[in-house]
Structure formats: structure tokens, C-alpha cells
Amino acid sequence: MPIEHSPPKTPTTMLQHSQSSPDITVDQNVTTRSQRLKRKQGDDLEYFIKKFENMFSTWTATQDAKYESLLSTINMIKDQNSQISTSIEFMSQKYDELKIKYDSLLQEKLEVKAQIRNLEGKVELLERRSRATCVEIRNIPNSKTEQAQELHDIVKSLGNVLKVDIDPQEIRNIHRGYSKNETSKPVIVEFSTVSTKDKILRSIKQLTKDNNGVRLNTMHLGLDGPQTTIYISDFLTPSMKRLHFMARDFAAKNNYKFCWATPGSICLRKKENEPSIPLKNELDLKRLQTT
After folding, report:
1. How far apart are CA 118 and CA 115, in angstroms?
2. What are the distances in angstroms from CA 23 to CA 11, 28, 60, 162, 248?
3. Contact 179/134 with Cβ under 8 angstroms?
4. Nearest Cα to 171, choosing from 210, 140, 135, 201?
5. How confident is the model over 128-165, as pLDDT tens digits?
6. Measuring CA to CA, which residue among 128, 129, 130, 138 is closest to residue 204?
7. Distances from the Cα of 255 to the Cαs of 149, 238, 243, in angstroms?
């Protein structure tokens, strides 16, 4: 009978080794994957670091370029401000020079105006004195063929009406004055003495009283045409005529009863028997208006 041998026993060590082999393989795979993952993470981190460095370098370059541009602009503005400051200083200097010249010219202007007023006053005074013996006769009609002798005859007739003896030798000059009305320019008569002029002016007032208020007119002198009142007064200068006009307007508005002209002044009187107020120029009238 054959002898049966029992199966060979598997060594425990071999069994243990065979059983543990799969575990060893798993650990190796896990380690390999971990290492790969770590390498990948390291590569990614390095990539991001390089990318960040590139981005930072680009941003830094951009900021440097902006800084350079800003610095250049600031320097340009500084240069412009320096030029503006220089220009302002130059203009300020020129302004001071012009101010000095202006003040000097203004002072000269004031002095010249004062001299002009002084000369105008002297001319006005001389003109008033030259007209001291003159009378102005208004509303005497004139003709185109009028001769100087006709004017002498009119003045002679005037003397007869006023009862004033007028010697032809006393008439120094006689002519027509200026007027917008070409058909009735005033007659200007210059006598040799002031007394003759004053006689005529006084006689006019007396004639009005004697004729019950009827004024001297063209009928008294036998002149042709419609009856027209004749006015005789002092031959005033243009400035005195203006003052006379203004004084009459002031008298009418302020209830002054009398306003008349003399060679040297215009006189106002509020009522009869009151003192007269002489006005030598427009300033006197303005002072009277304020009071």
C-alpha cells in the first residue's frame, strides 16, 4: 500500500509575505502619486510666482513711466510758473511806471484846466467890458438890401421916441448880429459912452409907464409890417445869455418877481423893496438853488 504523504506545509513566513505584498504595492503607489502631486503643486506655485513677478514688473514699469511723465509735467509747470512770475514782475514794474506817468499827466491836466478856467474868466471879463457900451435891439425886421445908414436912421428914430438925444458921433459901431431867424437879426449898437446906453435903457421903462404898459413896438418907429414888440437890452456875452436864461427859469419856478441883466451880472429880486441878488456865473445860481 502506498504511503500517502501529507501536502507540504506552506511556510508561515512565505504566507505572511504573500499576504502582505499587496499592501506594499499600495503604499508605493500612494507615495508615487503624492510625490507627483507635490511636484505639480510646486510647479504651479513656481508658475504663479513667475506670473506675479512678471505682472509686478509690468506694473512697476507702467508706474515708472507715469512717474516720469508726471515729473516731466511738473517740471514744465514749474518752468511756466517761473516765466509767469517773471512776466508778472515785469508787468508790475511797467504798471508802476505807467501809474507814475498817469498821475503826472493827471496833475498836468488839472493844472491846465485851472489855467483854461482862469483864461476863460479873463476873456469873459474883457468881453463884458468891451460890451459895456453896447445895446441889443431885437425884432426889427431887416431886408436883403439893407444899408448901414438905414440902421443909423432907425437908431435916430428910436432916440426921438425915447426922448433921448443921440448924437451920430456917439454911435461908434452898428451892425446886425447873429440869429437863426434870418429875417429879424438883432441890431447891435455900440455907443461911445456908457451913459448914453444907460439913458436909452432907462427911457424904455419910462416909455412903458407913460403908455400905460404898452411896450415899445415897430409902430413907434414907423416900420412896415405887423406890429411887433421891440426889446432893447444890454448886449450880453454867450455865457451871460445862458445864465440869464437859467435865472429866468429859476425865478419863474421859485416865485421871484424880478430878473434882469446887467453887463457884469444877472440880478434877481424876490419882491419889491427887497435887495437884489447878483449872479456872476452858474456857480452862484447853483448855490442859490441849494439854499
Report:
1. 5
2. 19, 9, 54, 168, 143
3. no
4. 135
5. 888 999 999 999 988 778 888 899 999 999 999 999 98
6. 138
7. 44, 26, 18
- CA-closest candidate to residue 198, choices 170, 233, 163, 158: 233
**C-alpha cell of 82?**
517761473
pTM of the prediction?
Answer: 0.62
**Tens-digit pLDDT profile for residues 196-213:** 999 999 999 889 888 888
* C-alpha–C-alpha distance, residues 157 and 187, integer Å: 14
Q: Is 149 left (phi over 0), alpha (psi -120 to 50) or beta?
A: alpha
Pseudo-torsion of CA 8, 14, 16, 18, nearest 10°? -110
Q: Tell me how far CA of residue 110 lies from CA of 96, 104, 121, in angstroms.
A: 21, 10, 16
C-alpha cell belonging to residue 259: 430878473
pLDDT in tens, 29-73: 556 666 666 666 667 778 888 888 888 888 888 888 888 889 888
One-character DSSP codes across 212-256: TTPPPBTTTTT-SSS--B-EEEE---HHHHHHHHHHHHHHHHTT-
Neighbours of 234 (CB within 10 A): 22
Spatial distance between the Cα atoms of 176 and 160, rounded to a whole number of angstroms: 21
DSSP state of 97: H
